[in-house]
Design goal:
alpha+beta; 7-stranded mixed β-sheet; 9 helices; binds alpha-D-galactopyranose
């Protein structure tokens, strides 16, 4: 019997930068997806997923999670196994449950390689299953390390680990707004960023002063978010290394403002929730996390407190090892 655990991730800062050759600073969390594989007598693959039912991989996929499994199992030529999937990661809460699920299926099917090779493979499976996402989630869920964040430079996929001060706590709040509306918005933002590159050249070569050359104010705002977010990632690295808790909080708040005003992926209800969370005792800062248009909010706070809001689901998360560090 083989068993693989792939954690979810939190993105501390660096949103919508992964598909723009920018920077991000995620860490893996202590919640994730576990897949166990055991031999079966015939050549079929039976999947039993807690809370999602039981199905055979060679029958027509009805749901997204069946399609995702089918993509991986077909490509890896998996036969003769019973798979058992269990998860402590809330689905659709913006902590990369789908990258963790696809990653766990990929690793339990025997795929091995460098961090970059495996992350690209998971990204390809996500894309074949219908989601055109960047490399942020697979790199974080596979490559992160305990007590540290993973600074990723998407222009060359170089990574470095940044220690996280022990007196900082992290809580993810669910906005209660499903991200199903989001798909088209996410795609629009990718298209708009492509339009910026088509006019000015690759994002990795751009500086703020180049943006005046963009005809459309909307594209200028989109590009300004990406470039300012890259700067905030580097400033966050310094703030973490020097345990500057105030700076950590203020970077989160300015990231939210940029996501709200320049990238326009927030919603009024989320802005209000971010404001409420920022006002809670012990909270240094908070922001919308992930693709946007719903999903979750990350709060950074004093590790001795547990911020909470009546009626809002939350998860306290701790920077943990990614899947590759857990493989024996
Ligand atoms: C989603 C995608 C990631 C990334 C974020 C925004 O979570 O899966 O690849 O683009 O949005 O930072």
């Amino acid at each position: 019997m083989k068993s693989v655990f792939v954690p979810g991730r939190v993105n501390l800062i660096g949103e919508h930068t992964d598909y723009n050759e920018g920077l991000a600073l995620p860490f893996a969390v202590d919640l994730g997806v576990n897949v166990t594989s055991s031999a079966r007598a015939d050549d079929r693959v039976r999947v039993a997923a807690d809370g999602f039912g039981v199905w055979f991989a060679d029958t027509e996929a009805e749901h997204e999670f069946e399609r995702q499994a089918q993509v991986v199992l077909t490509d890896r030529h998996v036969t003769n196994v019973d798979l058992h999937v269990s998860s402590t990661l809330p689905a659709g809460a913006g902590m990369s449950s789908s990258a963790a699920y696809i990653g766990a299926l990929t690793l339990v099917s025997g795929a091995r390689g460098t961090l970059e090779e495996l992350a690209r493979l998971v990204q390809r499976y996500e894309s074949l299953a219908g989601s055109d996402v960047g490399l942020l989630d697979p790199l974080a869920t596979l490559g992160a390390r305990e007590h540290r964040a993973l600074l990723i430079d998407f222009s060359n996929l170089a990574t470095r680990l940044v220690p996280i001060p022990v007196d900082v706590g992290f809580t993810v709040f669910h906005s209660g707004i499903s991200r199903s509306l989001a798909t088209s918005g996410y795609r629009d933002r990718r298209d708009e960023c492509r339009a910026v590159s088509a006019e000015l050249g690759p994002f990795r070569m751009l500086t703020m002063s180049d943006l005046a050359g963009l005809g459309e104010p909307l594209l200028r705002r989109r590009a300004r978010h990406v470039l300012s977010e890259n700067e905030r990632v580097l400033a966050m690295e310094v703030a973490l290394t020097t345990s500057d808790l105030r700076a950590i909080g203020s970077l989160l708040r300015s990231s939210h403002v940029s996501l709200r005003d320049d990238f326009e992926v927030s919603l009024p209800a989320i802005d209000a929730l971010v404001g409420t969370i920022c006002a809670l005792p012990g909270v240094f800062g908070a922001r919308l996390m992930g693709g946007g248009f719903g999903g979750c909010i990350l709060a950074v706070h004093d590790s001795d407190v547990q911020p909470r809001i009546e009626g809002v689901r939350h998860w306290r998360v701790r920077p943990s090892d990614g899947a590759l560090a857990r493989l024996s």
